[in-house]
Amino acid sequence: MTIDENLSSPAERSLARHDVPDPLRDDVRLLGGLLGQVIAESGGNDLLRDVERLRELAIRAHDATGQDAEAAMAEAEGLVEGFSLERSEQVARAFTCYFHLANLAEETHRVRVLRQREVGSLTDDDSLSEAFAKLTDEVGREEALRRVQALEFRPVLTAHPTEARRRAVSGAIKRISTLLDTRSQAHGGTSEAENDRALLAEIDALWRTALIRASKPTVIDEVKSALAVFESTMFSTFPQVYRRLDDFLLGADAGRTQPLARPFVSLGSWIGGDRDGNPNVTAEVTRAAAALAAEHALTALETATRSVARTLTLEEGSTPPSQALLKLRQAQGQLDADVSAAADHESPHEPHRAALLFIAARISATQARNADLQYGEPSELEADLQVLQESLTEAGAPRTAYGELQQLLWQVQTFGFHLAELEVRQHSQVHAAALEDIRANGVHGELEPRTVEVLDTFRAVGAVQKRYGIRAARRYIVSFTQAPEHLSAVYELAEAAFGDSDAPVIDAIPLFETFDDLENSVPILETMLELPQVQRRLAENGRRVEVMLGYSDSSKDVGPVAATLALHAAQERIAQWAKRHDIALTLFHGRGGALGRGGGPANRAVLAQPVGSVDGRFKLTEQGEVILARYGDPVIAQRHIEEVAGATLLQSSPSVEERNTTATAEFAAMASQLDETSRERFHSLVKAEGFPQWFAQVTPLEELGMLQIGSRPAKRGLSVNSLDDLRAIPWVFAWSQARINLAGWYGLGTALASFGDIDELRRAYREWPLFATLLDNIEMSLAKTDENLASRYLALGDRDDLAQLVLDEMRLTREWVLKVTESEWPLSKRRVLGRAVQLRAPYVDALSMIQVRALAALRSGDLDDNDADGIRKVLLLTVSGVSAGLQNTG
């Protein structure tokens, strides 16, 4: 695919209209041109002409209006109709590859801008240091410092199947990214011609790589994918964030005195622990996932320790060891005289280096489970490193003490030996069935296989704790917590699994998901406090309680507007409950990447939370494609962490608290009306007779289950005759593929129109953070919709009444959102995001035309098996491409 060199081409005019920065324009032009060359070499000029023709028609249809748009759309559809199956697959592959390259170019540019900002020392309103400065202005430095040292950010990686691209594709994209970065920075001694050749080779490999998986990944495959991100960015990036903060806090004293910054990122993982609806997550898999994570953590720590040791060449004459260090060296010699002697031999007259080399050997022994030499827990390793650090400080070498050695200490404190806390999740009904089985047959009787698995899960948690410490696995999340008994069941089952011996430390965490569950949350929490196991944990952990909120099912239950308001109200009530009982509350936000699942900018969402619901602690799920998008590049990962941490710090500032409190009270009547009206409109659609079957007809819902993108089933067992057991991921995914995005906005238009007072709505948008965040997220959702294409999907269902409901609400929502935000078109006031969405839209349209044609053929039922298989292959390829183009799935 190419971008023509002159501004007369539709693509170039589009680039110009959206004010694309020259470096980004150059990268897109370069990669698009190289892809076009690869397509021509592989499939011939005829293929390239078909791709280019469809691209030009899609751009014309997207940019034109009225009859001109319809004519271009009809011509494009005619072109697609004439494609053979093979040609459809080739063209879909071309557009999908293009999206991967365009996304890469934008990420490269984003990194470029962030680097330039660092070099230029530009003010960054979203940085953690800027947040600290603002907080200091309001509460004073001492209080601001206390808060920043108590700060907690807990991202939890999940394996929800929303990453539609293969690891092989991700690997190819990473290699192309490295080559593009080398080219843009003009370093490495590589000529432009050599760079072109290498880029062509990698793009050719991407073109020839199967873009969709042939088989489902296993749970362990998913674990390894997450661990790859740990290795590439997280291990080094997290302490760099602490370092940047410490540099700001200490100024000229940074790096030569005890740090003021404390580790505040604590990584969690559901991958290998989340068994709700996933029969592939077994107790054995949980143990294996924990072992793999620990192996990566210990390997990374050993490598980092040896790296620091290589530079710790301070001679004992200039830097004499402290008495504590000499005592440590003596103890090391008693542990293993040979290893200690080898360290001395490698570091003659360098006692600090020798001590650190022995520490590295102990880390290696911990991984190998050498009982004589291994560390029992991370605190022992931390203590040894602190002896080393204090000795260097006493000897007058503080810059060495608080340099790379401090970085290593932060890594130990952040990741321990377990890397990420493995959290278990299971459905409350599974526990109820297991308890009933045990009570009927006895714990040693003949039990159902699922009951045995439940008990084995607790035993796996116990084994992980014994091996890697309590921090490695203690949180147990109960899906669909609807009664206090659903929490007490966790403790009863844990005790049943261990008999008379000590059960592992367990914190049962309620997950409130549906609208009714959110409404009933506080009474359940009140009763939870009466459980003796909970009372014991409160005494042990400083009265800390965690509560999880599910965004996905509540949105599917009552619609995005009512769900947003219900979640906000529930957080208010839970925060007040925590305050009454002197509880240190952490709310765990089960947010997806897509807007219909609570997605959108996390930092803005934090600032819109009710008073007392954050209090310096923020925990959320990081899912699917979001993991790579936020943590795949170290510069972007650092930016993301700082944005969320800065917002978490500022959320409890007096000014933010006053704004949220005032707005919530002032706009309460508006909220009530929007809630009621939007919910009624949403239910009029989803509760209509035959809606589930119609939904499956007008979207690729059933076909999504054929995508091998995750180990977890898309449904909880029931057919599409019921939406109740349809997971929120395919609910959102299917609507986004149909270019409707209904899960993100349906009901808002009617609610705004019913309220009617545009001046008051605009005032709410200016003064009410929750409302502004809701509208901004819905505006982004609308920007990714297309009415012309949506109508073609909806026509597949033979229900004009339901189709008209959707289209009418889409138009109404767009009209009122633009009126309230005073925008010309969706995202017109958000230059960077608007540019990204608008530039992709025509190319996504081209893939959607191929997809809707494939769906129509499948829905006709007039196909033999071979044709049907071929069409499904094309359809799944378009699903992957549309996901890449829209940059979200579920």
Short note summarizing the structure:
Helix content is 67%, strand content 5%.
Describe it.
The chain is mainly alpha-helical. It folds into four domains: 10-121 and 167-209, no CATH class; 232-258 and 282-415, de novo design (two linked rop proteins), CATH 1.20.1440; 421-654, TIM Barrel; 664-886, no CATH class. A nine-stranded parallel beta sheet has the order 3-2-1-9-8-7-6-5-4. Helix 3 packs across helix 40. The radius of gyration is 28 Å and the shape is globular. The two termini are 28 Å apart.
What is the number of E strands?
A: 9
Unreliable segments (pLDDT under 50, ≥5 consecutive)?
3-16, 594-599
State the secondary-structure class. mainly alpha
How much β-strand is present in the residues? 5-15%
The CATH class name of the largest domain reads: Alpha Beta
Query: Helical element count?
Result: 41
Total of domains:
4
The CATH topology name of the largest domain reads: TIM Barrel
Evaluate the radius of gyration.
Answer: 28 Å
Q: Biggest β-sheet, characterized?
A: 9 strands, parallel
Mean pLDDT score: 90
Strands of the biggest beta sheet: in what spatial order? 3-2-1-9-8-7-6-5-4
What is the approximate shape?
globular
Write the CATH architecture name of the largest domain.
Alpha-Beta Barrel
Question: In which range does the helix fraction lie?
Answer: 55-70%
Q: What is the straight-line distance between the termini?
A: 28 Å
Helix-strand blueprint:
Elements: H1 10-17, H2 22-43, H3 45-63, H4 66-81, H5 85-120, H6 128-139, H7 141-149, E1 152-158, H8 167-185, H9 192-208, H10 219-250, E2 268-269, H11 283-311, H12 323-335, H13 337-346, H14 351-368, H15 378-394, H16 398-401, H17 404-415, E3 421-422, E4 424-427, H18 428-441, H19 449-468, E5 475-479, H20 485-498, E6 507-512, H21 515-519, H22 521-528, H23 532-541, E7 544-550, H24 551-558, H25 560-580, E8 584-590, H26 602-607, E9 617-623, H27 625-631, H28 634-650, H29 654-666, H30 668-686, H31 691-698, H32 701-704, H33 728-737, H34 742-745, H35 748-755, H36 758-767, H37 769-783, H38 787-794, H39 800-821, H40 831-860, H41 865-886
Helix pairs in contact: 2-3, 2-5, 2-9, 3-4, 3-40, 4-40, 5-8, 5-40, 5-41, 6-7, 6-28, 8-9, 10-11, 10-17, 10-28, 11-14, 11-17, 11-19, 12-13, 12-14, 12-15, 13-14, 14-15, 15-17, 18-19, 18-20, 19-20, 22-25, 24-25, 25-30, 30-35, 35-39, 36-37, 37-39, 38-39, 40-41
